[in-house]
Design brief:
This protein is mainly beta and 194 residues long. Helices cover 13% and strands 42% of the residues. The protein has one domain: Jelly Rolls, CATH 2.60.120.590. The protein has 3 helices and 13 strands; from the N terminus they run E-H-E-E-E-E-H-E-E-E-E-E-E-H-E-E. A hairpin with a 5-residue loop joins strand 4 and strand 5. The N terminus is likely disordered.
Length: 194
Amino acid sequence: MIETQPLLFDLPLAPRTPWPEGFRYQPELIDAAEERDLVASFQDLPFKAYEHLGYFGNRRIAGFGWRQEESGRMVETGEPIPDLLLPLLDKVAAFTGLAQASFRHALVTEYSPGAGIGWHRDRPPAEAIAGVSLLSPCQFRLRRKAADRWDRASIIAAPRSAYLMAGPARSDWQHSIPALEALRYSVTFRTVRR
């Protein structure tokens, strides 16, 4: 009798943590030429250091439509989303199925090498949050407290990809990005309750 050892490809796959309800991911939302042109256009944006409650993050931001006060509260500025972001917003709206006009806040973030963003949940009045990752991949992590443990999920957000956090993914889960090895930009669009 000959005993055979199972081949690696015959073994069942390890279970994967499912993405939270309301989380979606789209690779290659834009092509490399669109990414290059978009990043080049960022050089003229009014970036400033990210600050929250006296803490400065190792990243720079340029926000439009709404801004975050020192207290963390979001307030409307009346400043429109700039024209250079509108073609990208068209694609984000198509990906999410949400009306372009429902996105009333845009944030361009420049992450220097070594920068990341800690665990947080976007505050109201933000409802749905869609982001586009540019130049470098990042590990996009999600977690939710469930009794005495954490439910966790993560994805490698590739350059030119997009994600959506809506419903429970937006309201019940926190997200973070660990320190990056290379320069990365993200463009985040938020729908805001009127």
